[in-house]
Amino acid sequence: MTKNNLYVFLYIILIAIGIPWYWPQDSRSIILGVPAWVAVAVLCSLLASLLTAYILINSLSDEE
Asked: What pTM was estimated for this model as a whole?
């Protein structure tokens, strides 16, 4: 598996976890004052942003 395939796979996993389609509609779980699905979606978004930053930083340092 190449690095590019790994990055695509990680993005797909983060999207699958971050989209709240698997949460039951009657779920009343609260994390830090927000519904749990919101906290999970924000966390996945943060992880995707960190992954993007990591990819960009590595690609810039590889060119030098």
From this structure: 0.83
